[in-house]
Amino acid sequence: NSAGWSKKSSSPVKMSTIASGKCNKRDEIRWWVTTTNPSYSGQEFTKEIESCSIKSFAKPDKVASCLVDYTKDSSKTPFNLPPISSDCGMCYGVNAQCSMAHCSFPCGMGTAANSAACLQCNDQYCKPEFYSCSGLYTAIGPPDPQ
């Protein structure tokens, strides 16, 4: 036609709001908002992930429990969301365990968890497993914390 549209049609695409991993949609909203919403201090959640990881010696179940407890306080979560699901928290714990196993040197010893070397190490060794576990969609993922 004159508008340049083809007369051919394609099969409809089915979309789902069901999470593909252990994190549910509320967890996904928290993950996205914590680093992209200027009116919410996402860095606090990032710091708490680090704190929980250190306090629990990166044991996944302990990291998950720590994050659930932290997010029970509605003032520490965007839009008064319910606490992070324990299944999703476990993915953060698995990520912490991976970081401890593979990235202790670039991420520890007084080095900030958001240093270039630490982020690069986590990108290489831990992020793929985190995304696989959590089901969070990497293409819409927030940038690394600054």
Which short descriptors sum up this protein?
146 residues, mainly alpha, 6 helices, 53% helix, 0% strand
Question: What are the segments in which pLDDT stays under 50 over at least 5 consecutive residues?
Answer: none
Order of helices and strands: HHHHHH
The tally of domains stands at 1
- Multimeric organization: single chain
The biggest sheet, with number of strands, parallel, antiparallel or mixed sense and barrel status, is: none
- Number of E strands: 0
Note the beta-strand portion. Answer: under 5%
Shape: globular
Structural class: mainly alpha
Fraction of residues in helix: 40-55%
Protein name: Immunoglobulin super DCC subclass member
Summarize the structure.
This is Immunoglobulin super DCC subclass member. The chain has 146 residues and is mainly alpha-helical.
Can you describe this structure?
It is a single chain. With 146 residues, this protein is mainly α. It has one domain (25-137). It contains 6 helices and no strands. The longest helix is centred in the middle third of the chain and has 22 residues, at 86-107. The chain is globular. The termini are far apart. The relative contact order is 0.16. The model has no long low-confidence stretch (mean pLDDT 79).
Layout of helices and strands, plus pairs?
Blueprint: H1 25-36, H2 42-55, H3 60-71, H4 86-107, H5 116-125, H6 127-134
Helix pairs in contact: 1-2, 2-3, 3-4, 4-5, 4-6
